[in-house]
Amino acid sequence: MPGLLPGRERGSTCSLSRPIRARIDLAALRHNYGVARRHAGSARIWAVIKANAYGHGQWQVARALQDLADGFALLEVETAVALREAGFVQPILLLEGFFAPGDVPALVHHDLTTVVHSPEQLAMLEAAVERPERVYVKLNTGMNRLGFRPAQLAAVLERLRRLGTREVTLMTHFAEADGGRGIEAQLDCFSVLAGEAGLPVSLANSAALLRYPETRGDWVRPGIMLYGSSPFADVPASHLDLRPVMHLESRLIGIQTLAAGERVGYGGLFQAEHPMRIGIVACGYADGYPRHAPTGTPIAVAGSPSRVLGRVSMDMLMCDLSGIEAARVGSPVTLWGMGEGGTVEVDRVAAAAGTISYELFCALAPRVPVRWD
Fold first, then answer.
1. CATH tag for 246-372 (out of 3.40.50.300, 2.40.37.10, 2.20.25.90, 3.30.429.10)
2. Spans of all domains in the chain
3. pTM exceeds 0.70
4. Active site residues
5. Could you read off the pLDDT of 150-178 as tens digits, one per residue?
C-alpha cells in the first residue's frame, strides 16, 4: 500500500497481511488547526503533540503543522531535542517541565521553554550553571494536580527574577471547561494573580478555546480538537467544524448464522432472539479497540451501520449483519472514522465504551499498520 509506514514510530513490527489498518488524514489535521486559529483570535497557538500526537504519529503531525503552528507542546525533553535537531525552529513547550537536573543543559542549548510547577524544579534551576530564558509558571487554581498555590506565586517570581529569567508566562489548566461547573472559579482566581503580576498568560485547552473566548490570553493550547474529536460529551465534532483525522478500518474474516437462543463469544454475553447473521471482524483489544465496548457499540459494515455483539476478543470482534445483505467475507468495516465500510464517529464509540476518544486514539496498538495521507 503506498504511503504505508508499518508501526515505524512505535518501534515495533506489524502485520501487512491482516486487514486492519489505521489511516491518518493530515489534510483534516490542518483543517482542524485552522478551526483553532479562528477561535484563538490574536493569541498564538501551542499545537499539543504529546503522547505521540494523541496516537496519530508525533513526527508526521509535527511535519504537517510545521508551516502553521506558532509552537509545539509536548512532554519529553528528548523529543523536543529531536525536533530541534530535525530543523523545527518554533518555540517548544515542555508541559510538565523537566524531570532531573541533567535535563537543564538541554533546555538552554536547544532554546526550550519549560513549565515550572514545583519547588523542586526551582531548586534544580538554582543549582544549574546555565538556565533557560523562558519559563511558564504553572498555577494550581483548582485542578489540584501540578502547580504552585496562589500564595506561593510572589516568592516563585522573585526566585526566577534572581535567576535572570528573561520571559515568564503564567499558566493554569481548567478541570471542567468541558463540564457543567465551567471555569468561573478557576478563572477568577487566575485573573487576580495575573492582573497583579502583569505577565503573559496561557489558559485555554480545546474545550476552553471553543467555549470560553475570555480564556484566549496570549497562548492557547489545543489538543484533542486538532485530531477531530469533540471535547464535549453533548456536542458532536461535526457541529464544531472538526474533521476526523484517524480512521480505523478492517474487514470481515468470517460469517456465522445463529439460531434463536444461541450465544456469541466469550461468556455468551449476547444471545440471539431470532435467527440472524453475524460478522467476525479482524480487530480486537490487542489492536487497541476497547475490550469493554458493549453490545450496541456502533460500527459500520459494507456501507451500512451496525453494532458490536458480545465481548470483544483479543484479535476479533463480532457484529450484527441483520439487514446488511451485501456483507460477505472480505467486506469492509469501519471501527471509527470514515472508510469503505461507512462512517462511525469516534466519540460515539468512546461514549458506548464508557471512555473518551483520547483513550481510543492513544491506545492504538503498535501492531496496527498506519498510513499517513
1. 2.40.37.10
2. 26-229, 246-372
3. yes
4. 50, 266
5. 999 999 999 999 999 999 999 999 999 99
